[in-house]
Amino acid sequence: MIEIKIKTNSQMASQKALIILVSVLMISFYSVFSIGPMIYAFVGSFADWNPIKDTFQFIQFNNYIHLFNNQLFWKSLKNTIYFVAVVVTGRVVLGFLIALGLNSIRKYKSMMRSLYFLPVIMPIVAVALVWKWLYDPNIGFFQMVLSAFGITNVKFLFDPDLALPSIMLMTIWKDVGYAVIIFLAGLMDVPQSIIEASEIDGANKRQQLWNIIIPTLKPTLIFVIITSIISYFQTFTQIFIMTKGGPGTSTHVLLYMIYREAFQYYRFGYASAITVCLFIVIMIVTFIQFKIMKGGEV
Amino acid sequence: MTKAKLSKGLIFTLLLIGGIAMSIPFIWLLFSSFKHNKEIIGYPPTFFPETFTLTHYLNLNSRFNIGRYFMNSVFLSTVKTVLAVYTSLLCGYVLAKFNFFLKNFLFKIVLFTMMVPYIITVIPVYQMITDFGWKDQYIAIIAPTILSSFGIFMMRQYIKTGVPDELLEAARIDGAGEFRIFHTIVIPLCVNMISALTIFLFLWNWEDFLWPYLVLNTQDKFPLAVALNMFSGQNTTNYGGLFATSLVTILPVVIVYFMFQKRFVEGISMSGIK
Questions:
Q1: Which chain A residues are within 8 Å of B28, Cβ to Cβ?
Q2: Is B78 inside a domain boundary?
């Protein structure tokens, strides 16, 4: 028999052409729109870089020195971490409970799932506007409900203590459905035979949850937690639409600070220094993820 | 037995209450959009409209060129999604099935860029777009998403096992060129993955706000999300008009969702599979 991998010259040529096409496409794309800009941002964070004045002068660590002495940076970082901690916890815990519930019912399952999932696909700008009106102290739905219980004068987005939690609630409402769907897919992998066997052995629901369901879902849980952390560190649109960082600086998060420095004051170098800090924080989180994944599972 | 039934009933009731609570913002918006402005700001506030009106919907197009913005969004989202899905298949196929000198390096770049916060590239890319003279043009929105690391990764993982080598070898023996193999064998085998990725990217592109907001200046070019933000800034007290406009921007995705419900759920679940 002749060698099976015999190829004609034109086939060899087309294989080569395909590999070269993809290599060139990927290398040029990533250098222009991804890796290149990252290096640009890193270098620019050491410069007085202003696109309006058309300046790009190196000023050593001045951007970072100013940044670390800026109270607003620390306040924004604190707000961001607070936001990430609450929303990730809310999304994961509620998402898990809802998925467990949905997994156990037979009737109306897809209708129920839709109720939880629909906010995920709604455009964030429209959703943020709707919630801004829901929270409105004069015309809002929440005001209407609270006043039925005799509680008035709750200012929600205009109250420095309530503004960020209000946005957190909206964000959990919008995003919990995504976690529900991912967890539902993960729950399908829980081996039914083991659940049944454990029932025969007299295990109760709680034991099944902690000893069978949660260990099986662990990779899914970690996936949702990590991707949520990375995306919530970059929360912007709802802040921009609902409060613009206010009242005062109570909802001022890192992305909003970057936006203001870069696109209102055109301090590109200074803003880049903030993005570099954010990048480092997220890399640390991702690194910890890999440690946990390697240590605990598979 | 009855205890188990009781707890089943309790779970169902809790889920139903939660589900209704989830839909309240949407229902409130729907009802309020049929109220007169006087009723919306009146006291005491109402949930159901006392007098039903279609004014806000009838006036919609005169103050807010919804058709135009809608078509802009459809155009941008479609072009961006089709391009990224096609390049994801192409790059994913080559990374999955061929051995060549740059392969591992390219795959590592894909993995790395998936983890990097997008915001770090926004400022430099904005500067570049300005330097290229691309500001206020759709190319500024389309070009930076021609490739999708997420899409390439998803396709590469799928094609590695989902497209059998024997099939590719057989086609090669029959004398097919690589580009024909890609288009007539690889792509048809990835239909489920393609629909999942399409849904994911389309949703992403449809709600994209910051980047188009930064690079576009001409109103007529705005996608729906940017236009809605502008409209809300100009009509702060015309609540009814705002409600109707917001509802109209939300409704298309809801309708599309109910048409392709199963595909949506599959698509979202696939993003979690590693």
A1: 134, 141
A2: yes
